[in-house]
Amino acid sequence: MAKIGLLALVLSFLCITPAVAAVSDARQACIRTAISDGAAARGSSAQLSRLFNQYFDGERIARAAAGKDWKKYSPAQKDAQRRRVKSLVISEIAPRLSAYQPAGIQFLSESGSKVRGKMTAKDGTSATVTWHFAGEACRFVNIAVEGFGSIISYVGREPSRKN
Fold first, then answer.
1. Is residue 149 helix, strand or coil?
2. Any bridge partners for residue 55, and if so which?
3. Cβ neighbours of 118 (radius 10 Å)
4. Cα dihedral 116/149/91/78 (nearest 10)
5. CA-to-CA distance for 145 and 147, rounded, in angstroms?
6. What are the strands, taking DSSP E only, across 30-154?
7. What is the pLDDT of residues 125-153, one digit of tens each?
8. d(Cα 160, Cα 151) in Å, to the nearest integer?
C-alpha cells in the first residue's frame, strides 16, 4: 500500500512540474553565430559596430533602460542613451561572451522570447545566460548574465548630462 502511495505522489509531482521547453534550432543557431561572429571581430571597432546593428535592437534596449523617463528625454538625450547601449555591448558584453566557445553552450530552456543556457569557457568557468529576443528575428533586446546583471541594468536610467 505504501508503494502505491509513493507512486501516486511521484506521478502527481510529474504532472504538476512544468516541462522544460526545448530550445528551437533557429534560436540555438542565432546565439552560436552571434558569439562566433563577435569573437571573430575582436579588436575591429567597425566590425563590432556592424554586428551590434545586426544582432541587437539598440532602440528597444535604450527605451527599456530609460523606463518611463524615455518620454521625457530630449532627442539629444535619446541619442546619448542609444550610444551608451552600443558602447556597453561592444566594450563590455561582447568581450565577455566571446570568452565562451559556441560549442560550450548548453541550452536549458526556451519560454516565449527568452532562451536560457549555460556557457562554459575554455578555463572551465561557467555562467547562466538568458538571451531575450526581439520577436522571431535573430535580434536581442537584452542579455542577462547570472552574477553580472543585464544590458538594461548596466545602461541605467540616467540620460547623458553632456547633451
1. strand
2. none
3. 15
4. 100
5. 6
6. 100-111, 114-121, 126-133, 140-145, 149-150
7. 888 999 999 988 999 999 988 866 788 88
8. 17
Is residue 9 exposed (0-12), middle (13-18) or buried (19+ Cβ within 10 Å)? exposed
pLDDT at 29: 94
Q: Which residues of the chain have pLDDT under 70?
A: 1-21, 147-148, 156-163
Give the number of C-alpha atoms closer than 13 A to the C-alpha of residue 106, restricted to the C-beta side.
Answer: 7
CA atoms within 13 A on the CB side of 22: 3
> Contact at 8 Å (CB) between 143 and 31?
no
Sign of CA dihedral 142, 58, 100, 124: negative
Dihedral in degrees, nearest 10, Cα atoms 85, 47, 54, 100: -80
Please count the residues of the chain. 163
User: Quick one: cell of 162?
Assistant: 553632456
Average pLDDT over the chain, rounded to whole?
Answer: 80
Residue 157 C-alpha cell reads as 536610467
Neighbours of 101 (CB within 10 A): 15
Helix (H/G/I), strand (E/B), else coil: 88 = helix
- Cβ–Cβ < 8 Å for 62, 81: yes
